[in-house]
Amino acid sequence: MVTVVMPVYNGAQYFSETLKSILLQGKIISEIIVVNDGSTDGTEKLVRKWMEKVPRLRLINKENGGVSSARNLGLWEVKTKYVWFFDADDLMPEGAAEKIVGRLEETGADYGIGNCAYYHEPGHWISPTELYVPDQFWQEDRIDIFSWYESPGNKVFRTDFLKQNQLTFPNYKIGEDTCFCSKCVVKSKSIVSVSDCVELYRIYDGSSSHRYNLTVLDKLKAFAEIRKFLKKERMGSDWFVRQTYNELYHYRVVFLTLPLYSNARERRIIEQKFEEAYRKLDLNSLKRLKKLKERVDCDKYIRDVELILKIKAIYISQPVSWLFRMARSTKRALRKLRKLKKK
Known about the structure:
The protein has 343 residues and is an alpha/beta fold. The protein has helices at 12-23, 43-51, 67-75, 96-107, 159-164, 176-187, 218-232, 237-256, 264-280, 292-310, 312-315, 318-342, and strands at 2-8, 29-37, 57-62, 82-85, 111-120, 125-128, 136-138, 155-158, 191-203. The two termini are 41 Å apart.
């Protein structure tokens, strides 16, 4: 009934643990397609070893081309009713597939969304994410979840929905998930959400969420593509307001983390490009947001960004950047020490 498409690039360290969590879902997972994206760490050998024990495990090898190309290749090999894009370092809580697929079968929705939680490595401790997903069925009001969980790991899609609408992942280093998931909300007729946790998102020092370099500029390309798509699909002005809200949130995150970029030249390029994009936002349109919390959030985001832009000469200077990174490293070291003492 469900095919898991798992892109892997040098993921041997966590692959076995992730695979075991998928196998715990039972027969509802009909096939697991591992797309090896040019790994050099023995991933292929490990997968082939597992294939001897797990007949529903399938391997596709390709040259390194990024996670988007790996997912897209896997998608076109899917023959089952549903597809689940799941990364090779995350975990599926037991019973997750049954819960989300069960709701999809009941409602006939184009795809389902569940909650996820952060799984911190090392230490193996779990913390909640910033968003709570309720049990709900979304149709005309699906605009309210336009910016929810911009990753595919907590979503199960109807395969024909993706293929018929030609919904694939764009080739960006960062922002590809945001672009893909935004298009899925637009093209869907209905979405179902479940309050159950269906993904444990692993956080560790080498994860993509902790990379600070010029690839962050791909976010701007992704946002431009989303706006172009909204225009193509002739979506109403409210959708563009929601996109402005989404971009404002992301711009604030980038500005707040500027000192963590170690290369001074790259910091200034990123600051310049994102300031240009920020100045083009129609911030007045955000007053039309219906939820009070979102309007309050917008005011805070704007205040934060404007403050940083006023003091940017100091904020992105080399000494401040060094202090930020040292503070972050110290905090991480103390957290590891506390975990070791508990053991």
